Amino acid sequence: MNYDRFFEDQITALRAEGRYRVFADLKRERGAFPKAAHRHETGASRPVTVWCSNDYLGMGQHPVVIEAMHAALNETGAGSGGTRNIAGTTHYHVDLEHELADLHGKEAALLFTSAYVANDAALSTLVSMMPGCVIFSDEKNHASMIAGIRHGGGAKMIFRHNDGEDLERLLKTVPLETPKIIAFESVYSMDGHIAPIAAICDLAERYQALTYLDEVHAVGLYGPRGGGIAERDGVMHRVDIINGTLAKGFGVMGGYIAASRACVDAVRSCASGFIFTTSLAPVLAAGALASVRHLKTSDVERKAHQERAATLKARLAEVGVPVLPNPSHIVPVMVGNPVHCKAITDALMDQFGIYVQPINYPTVPRGTERLRITPGPIHTDAQMDALVGALQTLWAACPVGKGKYIRIAAE
Fold first, then answer.
1. Is 313 labeled as catalytic in the residue annotation?
2. Which of the residues 106, 180, 248, 313 is marked catalytic?
3. pLDDT for 263-318, tens place per residue?
4. Per residue in 262-291, is it b (16+ CB within 10 Å) or e — as a string?
5. Are 192 and 199 in contact (CB under 8 A)?
């Protein structure tokens, strides 16, 4: 077999579908976010404005975070030196876990190298530890949750997205004494939907199930202290296990779970994705710690973030650019074709100096390709003017998203 030819054929097929992914070579400018330098493959570089970063609040550029990371680097050096079990637990890790447990009102928290790893390791471990456990999973759950559920090897049932009636229908089919986990997200990052957390907790209590909530796209952004949608809605105490990230609202890197002390200890002791992985570098833990502490007491960033998102949605709707309606900070501009989606983002970059990454299958279903725009508190009115004007110009030339948007919105 000619292996390289096989791989080349696979890439050719991706290109033909318009799904071949090209990385934007960016160099963020400290103190100037969302500006960055975009380096072309020719070696040339030019300034661009980033409109798709998951550093939602710009905390990756915040002086408090940067200063804490400089201090940790000077005090401890670069890496952690090992796994958490073997020389890789520093006081920065311990402090951060205490801070995260407090953020979510839980007894304990556990750090991972990413929220993907946290979901995969925690869910697979929980399922495999409880004989006969059945997982009830929202149909739009993130790939990391799906991976964890699969790796656990237990039975699973998929309920319709944010549909409590369908979830209850499935729960009724399983004996009350059977171990159960309901796994879902608070903010769904591609459509911007928000889960009915209280209603799902009602069902979990009625049918004796654990709740596992992914708050990755909500921590830092919602709630009086940045605890997420569950905190905002006053139901955090009713959720058993919360998964979060340190790489989005908090602007650094890493993931975690927060739960009861017994639950966290069980995952800590048995999850291979935790046990056999080098721990986060102390400099990252220190930066995340500073970010979490800052956002617990500062609401300035959250308020500005919500204003920027609402303003951009309204302005795009005014000029006829098809934004998928939702109650969160996510701004999905629907295109519905992978080739057109790539063409639009190429034009934004090449003609207007605006960087937005096209979102295609398998991240979203075929036929729902989109631009995923993430306005932040640091985006200025002038930068928003430029974005809205550029999209208005492109849509006037080729209104590719209109019919698709109408169909999706009706659903």
1. no
2. 248
3. 999 999 999 999 999 999 999 999 999 999 999 999 999 999 999 999 999 999 99
4. ebbebbbeebebbeebebbbbbbbbbbbbb
5. no
